[in-house]
Amino acid sequence: MPTQGLAQEKIKIACIGNSITEGPDNYPTPLAKMLGDKYEIGNFGKWGHTLLRKGDHPYMSTEAFVNAQKFQPDIVIIKLGTNDSKPENWEYKDEFQLDLEYMVRTFKHCGSKPKIILCRCIPAGNNLYGIRNDVITKEIYPIQRKVAKKFHLKLVDLYTPFEQKVDSTYYVWDNVHLNKKGSCILAGYIYRAITGKKFTK
Description:
Low-confidence stretches: none
Helix content: 25-40%
GO molecular function, one term: hydrolase activity, acting on ester bonds
Radius of gyration: 17 Å
Strand order of the largest sheet: 2-1-3-4-5
Organism: Bacteroides faecalis
Protein name: SGNH hydrolase-type esterase domain-containing protein
CATH topology: Rossmann fold
InterPro entries: Iah1-like (IPR045136), SGNH_hydro (IPR013830), SGNH_hydro_sf (IPR036514)
Number of domains: 1
Shape: globular
């Protein structure tokens, strides 16, 4: 009787982020459907959290951050920075690059030695909740580019595809959070960053 081959292990993807990652209309859900059964998606998003360790709700102080490392991912998607743009958080802007590098190094030292992908923040309209689009574009994005270059990481531009849609139905209710349609579009860009191919139904 022939010996059956062992089942191939799934490629594990840890999604790190805030409400765009954790919320009801999150992007990891459609991303999982796009990628199929060969992948396992771990959603480690935390609503309203910051990359900054001195932010009002620092992501790196959460159990989600610990669990993401225990997940032993093959790929890590980091989509943080939006909540850091609030005045009370951006007070510590001089530490943003240091903290981003710390997060990258932490995941690099995971036993699984994952590939890390950084994401540029999507646009934020009307400066709701204190989130400031000018900080996202003029200050946070240049730091993300610098860190991506330093560590030779892929940086996915999620800002440009939504730049002209801030006040459209691509957003749920407040020009900050994506609805299902917008999240599917965002997931498509992540899919392309992971596979190198454009998603087609």
